[in-house]
Amino acid sequence: MSEPFDAVDVIVTKRDGGRLSEAQIDWVLDAYTRGVVADEQMSALAMAILLNGMDRAEIARWTAAMIASGERMDFSGLSRPTADKHSTGGVGDKITLPLAPLVAVFGVAVPQLSGRGLGHTGGTLDKLESVPGWRAALSNDEMMRQLEDVGAVICAAGSGLAPADRKLYALRDVTGTVEAIPLIASSIMSKKIAEGTGSLVLDVKVGSGAFMKDAERAGELARTMVELGTDAGVRTVALLTDMSTPLGLTAGNALEVRESVEVLAGGGPADVVELTVALAREMLDAAGRPDADPAAALADGRAMDVWRRMIAAQGGDPDAPLPVARETEQVVAEADGVLTTLDAYAVGVAAWRLGAGRARKEDPVQAGAGVELHARPGDRVRAGQPLLTLHTDTPERFARAREALAGGVVVAPEAPAAAPRPLVLDRVAAG
Amino acid sequence: MSEPFDAVDVIVTKRDGGRLSEAQIDWVLDAYTRGVVADEQMSALAMAILLNGMDRAEIARWTAAMIASGERMDFSGLSRPTADKHSTGGVGDKITLPLAPLVAVFGVAVPQLSGRGLGHTGGTLDKLESVPGWRAALSNDEMMRQLEDVGAVICAAGSGLAPADRKLYALRDVTGTVEAIPLIASSIMSKKIAEGTGSLVLDVKVGSGAFMKDAERAGELARTMVELGTDAGVRTVALLTDMSTPLGLTAGNALEVRESVEVLAGGGPADVVELTVALAREMLDAAGRPDADPAAALADGRAMDVWRRMIAAQGGDPDAPLPVARETEQVVAEADGVLTTLDAYAVGVAAWRLGAGRARKEDPVQAGAGVELHARPGDRVRAGQPLLTLHTDTPERFARAREALAGGVVVAPEAPAAAPRPLVLDRVAAG
Question: ipTM, 2 decimals?
Answer without folding.
Answer: 0.86
